[in-house]
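Hi Q.,

Before the meeting this afternoon, I wanted you to have the hypoxanthine prediction in hand. No need to reply - just skim if you have a minute. The sequence and ligand are here:
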Amino acid sequence: MDTERIDLAVIGGTGLYRLAGLEAEAPHQPPTKYGALSGPVRIGTLAGRRVAFLARHGEGHSVPPHLINYRANLAALHALGARRVLALNTVGGIGERYGPRVLACPDQIIDYTWGRVSTFCEEAGSEVLHVDFGDPYTPALRAEILAAAAAAGVAMVDGGCYGATQGPRLETRAEIARLRRDGCDLVGMTGMPEAALARELGLDYACVAIVANWAAGCGDAEEITFQQVLDNVAAASTALPGLLEALLA
Ligand code: HPA
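Predicted structure with the ligand bound:
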């Protein structure tokens, strides 16, 4: 396996199945002791740096949030040489600053998911880790992302609390009202356990959330359609190449 250092690993969410501009070599799909990854890891050059990309839901969006093998994905990226992970997560907006097509770099998480394998500390004889998770996203990487956004002229909301829900269905209005009372600004289905597993592996990890829709009951829409989600992700994602170039500079 090629374990040359990777400058940045990017995990793409809903609507982000390839990384624009990445001149990728042959795809890697290493076996892991946790099972199969969501799909191939594409490693190549972007802005002169070695970058890896993995589509979290698979390149054909075939893996639902609760069935993503988060452990295999992160273990493979780690084994391939990644130490910094930029997670791109498609989300719904709850707080008024987080409308459709906004990019945000959240700083907190509340985990409402259940039944997902959420730790590497499960094997017999493995060390039980109680990792610090007070700041679930690596502050230094967040600062770099925000500085890169400023340098690239990309508008990005600094901070916010990501509420991680189970999916794959969207939430009820009452559930979103509860998340709002809890202090969530964003809602998505894939933020956890990915962030916690990254911390257990000692990876630097931060999220750029791409707001695809107002969460249930937050906007005027009667219904949230997948097409609306994809259209808004596509529109907001036009800022990503500039952001990545600045981040990798
Ligand atoms: N809720 C949960 N996850 C999402 C949403 C949402 O409204 N939009 C995109 N991902």
